[in-house]
Design a protein that fits this description.
heterodimer, A: two-stranded antiparallel sheet, B: FAD/NAD(P)-binding domain, six-stranded antiparallel sheet
Chain lengths: 252, 588
């Protein structure tokens, strides 16, 4: 049997300093290190890989004030306020989208973004060279341009019914936008609005778990052993975020 | 030039299910083993903590646990006339990353394949005649092994993973409540079946009334506290519904990180190197002996690790790509049908029927990747295919995986995608909709294969893997037939509305279907149409073993992981018992 090359116990980080930036593998927390592990892996107490929570009270991180107004207006129409819930805007969907764009989602840094960028078949999926930040920047500007030409006002200034007509036109690909396909722009905004409305509130949308209450999703509960065999019964769980819920804080 | 390191006995590429199992067996044999993993070390306590795991945005929508396509992806096209383009984000399937691999975010459904599957070409020829088999226009093959050889290794995998379920055939005697179509088992499942939610229970009642034999889906989610033969303890599944595409915080979902690695990493003759991506297997000038591997660490520095024995046990796609990049075997050519590296790539054919009710509450957030009830009457060759115009079939089942609402908001077709009407329909249908799935076979055909892409490369300049795949006509016919059978059961359950979704048209890389990509470096007894022998040993390179679903010559209507685990034990057993007595030789 051969000799062991590195008889080190525990975790050692081999930090070889080179300029090989192209080869660096990025993780959520930045730069990864090659790790040689022997024996018992070690971790610190409470090192639980927490979510990157959003502070909704901060200023816009990516959007300009004008862009934010447009996105708020869109999310107000996609998820309107009614007897079932508050609106997407009121739930914080625009804040959610802003923070997503400010982070790794906005830059496509985790995605394969090497060219050539070629339009393929429908089966070959999204081949756009535009990262989400660009899709929003270009799309929002083009949307306002369109609305000014057609309605002599920015999207956010239009009456609700006109906004709905424009959004339907975008969804069908019938509203021409400069610099981006209308369907591509609409589907990203629609996707992100729904993500914001239904994701855990720590990401800035779904304020007070409003969407979860609306549909009856209990959120981040982790044990249904006592309920799995309660068939066809309404359980009426109070929902729970991974950050807990407001009632906890007042009782604390 | 890579820096050469001191030699070791064995290197294992990939620390998912297959790699961890083989590494552990070789370490127990006394070999010094180094395992390489391109992603990070993952550990339940740190990475899958209960305070951070139930997060749909992070794990399902943003694919936290999956291989990042910036590091490595593949290109795809439906046929050789098209130019393949890169999959820039994962859709149709979800390769994993880090220790545990895709075995961390898998659903956990753990079938054994059936005895006929291992000699499919021979079996179908015997039953339907050579002419009928040739008319199907497929490239079906035998595996070069059989049920008697596979069974003990299935048992080993089930014991290490604590699989829950109910035997249907124990040593040849049929068992009430189990799957009557399974091959004879030597052991009962290590843990009893899970409790069942409402949807699977309703489905099983309807199926039973129609004369079928519903059984609890075999599951890698343990149903009670379980300590496996390596001394690692797991806890019971709590049906949290954050399962498929998530890591498990309860130590309930079997994965290499919850069953094998905690024991293996503590053994003195094993070392793991994480965030270290293997670039190629090195061969001696004759091309008949592997001399080790070359890898790149996270700083971009290249190292050569010489070894006497090289085990490649990455995901299917990277197994095939590493062999193509290393020049092992001859690349498959779909025109001449020469070459074996990349041959017989196959997938899985996903079908379903969705059921909308007015008067039922399924509490769909209660679930798990592998809790449910299934029937096998229309799977594989369990029904007579005479005159049907296709071979194969599917596993029909109801497995509510949880219903976190970014991805799970069923509404009837034609519902607007936004606005008041959308919201009303979302609320009305969230709790009262269920689905019956039919995960069906994917049979290989001449034009479906894996190769290196001529246009797109990874961040290191190495060609991406190119996938050329479309559903064979055989499989589309099978999909329609089996989905019609599912619809009969659905109708009996009397929903307000039901929607049949048989697989149709071209394979689309966008919507998620299944991560069961198989083949490309297949096993068999004939070196002209296979890459490895029945011990997973590469033809003509005796000290190189390539293990995983890459060895499947075609895919039955079952999930692959149980068989991946069994093949890992099979290869390890052959190395321990046979190869090490005559190292450097093909096992006779």
């Amino acid at each position: 049997m051969s000799e062991k090359s590195t008889p080190v116990r525990g975790v050692t980080r081999r930090q070889v300093l080179t300029s090989g930036a192209a080869a660096v593998v990025l993780t959520a927390s930045g730069r990864a290190s090659a790790v040689t592990i022997d024996g018992t892996p070690q971790w610190r107490p409470f090192d639980h890989n927490a979510a990157d929570a959003v502070d909704p009270s901060q200023d816009w991180q990516f959007f300009t004030a004008e862009e934010a107004a447009t996105v708020e207006a869109i999310t107000e129409r996609l998820i309107p306020a009614d007897e079932l819930s508050i609106s997407g805007r009121e739930a914080g969907c625009a804040i959610f989208i802003d923070r997503q764009l400010a982070g790794f989602f906005g830059t496509s840094e985790r995605l394969y973004m090497q060219g050539p960028f070629v339009n393929g078949t429908p089966e070959q999926g999204d081949q756009s060279a535009l990262i989400p930040r660009q899709r929003y920047r270009v799309g929002l500007a083009a949307l306002d341009d369109y609305c000014r030409r057609q309605h002599q006002a920015r999207f956010a200034e239009l009456p609700g019914e006109s906004q709905d007509e424009v959004l339907s036109g975008l969804e069908r690909g019938e509203v021409p936008l400069e610099g981006i396909e209308a369907k591509e722009f609409f589907s990203l905004v629609h996707q992100n609005t729904m993500e914001g409305f239904f994701a855990d509130p720590v990401y800035g949308g779904n304020r007070d778990m409003v969407s979860w209450r609306m549909i009856g999703f209990p959120g981040a509960r982790y044990d249904y052993r006592d309920y799995i065999e309660k068939h066809n019964q309404k359980l009426d769980f109070e929902p729970l975020s991974i950050a807990g819920r407001s009632g906890w804080r007042t009782q604390g | 030039m890579p820096t050469k390191l001191p030699a070791t006995d064995a290197v294992v590429v990939g620390l998912g299910w297959a790699g961890a199992i083989i590494a552990n067996e070789l370490v127990d044999e006394g070999l010094d083993v180094i395992g390489f993993e391109r992603g990070p070390w993952r550990d339940t306590a740190k990475d899958f903590n209960i305070a951070s795991v139930p997060d749909e945005l992070r794990y399902n929508a943003r694919q936290e646990l999956m291989l990042r396509t910036a590091q490595n992806t593949c290109t795809m096209r439906n046929d050789v006339s098209q130019t393949a383009l890169p999959m820039r984000s994962w859709g149709s399937f979800h390769p994993g990353n880090g220790t545990g691999g895709a075995g961390n975010h898998w659903a956990g459904i753990t079938f054994r394949f059936q005895p006929e599957d291992f000699r499919l070409h021979s079996h179908l020829t015997e039953r339907y005649g050579r002419q009928a088999v040739e008319a199907a226009n497929l490239t079906l093959q035998d595996w070069g092994t059989d049920w008697e050889e596979m069974e003990p290794h299935y048992a080993s995998f089930e014991r290490v993973a604590g699989i829950s379920g109910k035997a249907g055939n124990l040593n040849g005697t049929l068992q009430e409540g189990g799957n009557p179509f399974e091959g004879a088992r030597s052991i009962e499942y290590p843990t009893p079946p899970l409790k069942q939610p409402y949807g699977p229970t309703l489905f099983a009642e309807a199926a039973r009334e129609m004369g079928y034999h519903p059984f609890p889906v075999p599951s890698a989610l343990v149903s009670e506290g379980y300590t496996n033969p390596l001394g690692v303890t797991m806890g019971p599944c709590t049906f949290c519904g954050f399962c498929t595409n998530y890591g498990c915080a309860n130590y309930s979902k079997a994965s290499a990180i919850t069953t094998v690695l905690p024991a293996l990493i503590r053994k003195p003759n094993f070392t793991a190197k994480t965030n270290c991506e293997v670039l190629r297997v090195t061969l001696d000038p004759s091309g008949t002996r592997a001399t080790g591997i070359v890898y790149i660490d996270a700083s971009g520095r290249e190292w050569e690790q010489p070894a006497e024995l090289v085990i490649v046990a990455a995901f299917t796609l990277e197994n095939a790509r590493l062999m193509l990049l290393s020049g092992v075997g001859e690349p498959y050519d779909p025109i001449t049908q020469r070459g074996t590296t990349g041959r017989n790539y196959a997938y899985q054919t996903a079908n379903s029927v969705q059921l909308f009710f007015d008067d039922k509450n399924f509490n769909p957030f209660i679930g798990a990747g592998a809790v449910g009830m299934g029937i096998d009457e229309f799977n594989n060759d369990n029904f007579d295919h005479t005159g049907l115009g296709f071979f194969g079939g599917g596993s029909i089942r109801v497995t509510p995986i949880g219903a976190a609402p970014i991805a799970n908001r069923p509404v009837p077709p034609g519902t607007p995608t936004w606005g008041k009407e959308w919201k009303r329909a979302t609320v009305d249908n969230y709790l009262s909709t269920m689905s019956i799935g039919c995960e069906a076979s994917s049979y290989s055909q001449r034009g479906n294969y894996l190769s290196l892409d001529p246009n797109y490369s990874d961040r290191l300049g190495r060609p991406l893997l190119r996938m050329t795949f479309d559903f064979p006509e055989n499989d589309l016919r099978m999909a329609q037939y089996c989905t019609d059978r599912v619809a009969e059961i659905a109708r009996r359950m009397n929903p307000r509305q039901m929607v049949e979704k048989p697989m149709k048209g071209h394979w689309n890389s966008g919507p998620y279907q299944s991560s069961h990509v198989v083949g490309g470096f297949v096993m068999g007894s004939d070196p002209s149409v296979s890459s490895v022998n029945k011990y997973l040993q590469v033809w003509d390179v005796p000290n190189l073993f390539v293990v995983g679903a890459s060895a499947f010559p075609q895919n039955p209507g079952y999930n692959p992981t149980g068989t991946v685990g069994a093949l890992a034990y099979k290869a390890a057993d052959a190395i321990r018992r046979l190869y090490l007595k005559h190292p450097g030789e093909m096992i006779a």
